[in-house]
Amino acid sequence: MNADATAPQSSRGKSVLFCAECRFESALSDGWLVVSDGDERTVVCPECGHVADHRSERSAPTPPHAD
Q: I need a labelling partner for 38 at 20 to 30 A (CA). Which of 9, 31, 59, 61 fits?
């Protein structure tokens, strides 16, 4: 039996972010406040203001380019 077949399925997709403070969850493009300053990027929860992620743009994953 394949281990993936018995793993519990989550209703959250891979692109859904979750706030550890207030439990807000949504896709990054649907409501999260993204603040870029130079090469820094901060993702802030729109419900409670908790910083969910902060990193330099160089370490942030980049979306694939459409050709």
A: 31
Say how far apart CA 44 and CA 49 lie, in whole Å. 6
Q: Where are the domains of the chain?
A: 31-60
CA nearest to 31, candidates 46, 21, 17 = 46
Cα 45 to Cα 60: distance, rounded to the nearest angstrom? 18
- pTM, to two decimals: 0.61
Question: Does the structure show a pLDDT above 50 at 1?
Answer: no
Average pLDDT over residues 20-30: 92
Residue 41 CA, chain-centre distance (Å), reads 12
Is 17 a residue whose pLDDT tops 70?
Answer: yes
Neighbouring CB atoms inside 10 A of 40's CB total 13
Grouping H, G, I as helix, E, B as strand and the rest as coil, residue 29 is: coil
